[in-house]
Amino acid sequence: MKNYPDIFTTAEVAKICRCSQQTIIREFDRGNIKGYMVGTFRRIPLENLLKYMQETGRPEAWQEPLLAKSSKNGKHKKR
Question: What is the CA radius of gyration of the chain?
Fold first, then answer.
C-alpha cells in the first residue's frame, strides 16, 4: 500500500480526484474543500480531502487506501 501524506497540495488532490488542478483550486476557493493557505499556496488536510471525496462521490478506488491512512497517526513526508 502506498503511504499518503497528511497534507496535500492542489496538484496532488487533482491527481487523486482525477480532475484538473484548476477545478480543485476553484472548489477550495468556493469553500467546497476545506484547507488553509501557506503564503499563496493551498494545502488540504487528509481528513478534509476524504470528506470532499465522500460528499462528491469522487473515485472510490482511492478512498480505501486513504481511509486506512487516516486512522494512523503518521507525519507528513518530507521531500
Answer: 12
Instruction: Look up residue 28 and give its amino acid.
Output: F
What strands, in cross-sheet order, belong to the sheet with 41-45? 7-8, 41-45, 36-38
The type of residue at 43 is R
Q: Distance between CA 68 and CA 43 in Å, rounded?
A: 21
Length of the chain as a residue count: 79
Please tell me the pTM assigned to this model. Answer: 0.71
Is residue 44 within 8 Å of 79, Cβ to Cβ? no
Q: How confident is the model over 21-57, as pLDDT tens digits?
A: 999 999 999 999 999 999 999 999 999 999 999 888 8
